[in-house]
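Sharing a chain and its predicted structure for anyone who wants a worked example. Both blocks are below, sequence first, tokens second.
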Amino acid sequence: MPRRRLRAVDEDAAAALRHRRAAISDLGEALRQLIGYASTTEAPTVELLAAAERVRRVAAPLGERVRERGVLPAADDLLGGIRMYNPVTGTGSALAPPMRIAEEDGVAVGRCTLGMAYEGPPTYAHGGVSAMLLDQMLGYAVSASGNPGMTVQLDTAYRKPVPLLTELRLTAEVTAVEGRRVTATGWITTVAEPDEVLAEAVGTFVALRADQARRLFGSVL
């Protein structure tokens, strides 16, 4: 196939992938809105039953073509760090806030707002959700440092309740690298009060050996 033709095919494929990712994100946003309303609605019981039936009808076509556990989503790029359905950062995930993460002066900084669906104690986030956010932040910092690994230990301390419907600021940084073992520390604060720590965590990550990576992820690598 001529080089010009190959370039056109590649451009078409890239455009189709961008369009699919945008569609996944759009559906994810709609699902997050649905979950938000479902978590806060005080609609009459009859309306809840009717809504449940409508949701089932809408969901049915999506279930006609689903991937198996050992198959990556077509829109993902594992090596490129694009995970559309990550439960913390994935824009296609109905579970994700989603959190946005970037590097600022060598420190990983994330921002998100937790809706009512994440409620544990009334008006505050469930502690397990805080731990999940911190684990994601620490993992990002570890990978960004050039020492990617898997979490083997996560020690979380809860200083104050994490409020819902409040913009949060999360930070994480690597504090030690010892061979394949990496230690990182992270914090949750609010954007309004960045010096008041609500929760913090210290995580230990270990880089996988080639044989371990093949055993765990051979079907998707």
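Comments welcome. The longest strand covers residues 167-178.
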